[in-house]
UniProtKB/TrEMBL annotation:
<keyword id="KW-0472">Membrane</keyword>
<keyword id="KW-1133">Transmembrane helix</keyword>
<protein>
    <submittedName>
        <fullName>ABC transporter permease</fullName>
    </submittedName>
</protein>
<keyword id="KW-0812">Transmembrane</keyword>
<feature type="transmembrane region" description="Helical">
    <location>
        <begin position="26"/>
        <end position="46"/>
    </location>
</feature>
Length: 70
């Protein structure tokens, strides 16, 4: 478990170091998912129906989060 945590710490440190050197990446990481959720929600929100009675906004948000995580 300690090897996993040390590797996780090293990878997180590298990502933070890159974000400090290139702050535009941070803007991209935060703005892109919000823009996708708003864009898809506004564009298709009124015309889509989910079978089973779910909300389209929740469906899109879950999809965008999954895409951004991958």
């Amino acid at each position: 478990m300690t090897v996993f945590l040390s590797d996780l710490y090293a990878i997180a440190g590298r990502h933070v170091h890159h974000l400090v050197r290139l702050p535009e990446k941070l803007i991209g990481f935060t703005v892109m998912p919000v823009a996708m959720v708003l864009g898809l929600g506004i564009l298709f929100g009124g015309s889509m129906r989910i079978s089973g009675g779910g909300e389209y906004g929740a469906f899109v948000a879950a999809g965008v989060i999954t895409v951004m995580a991958v």
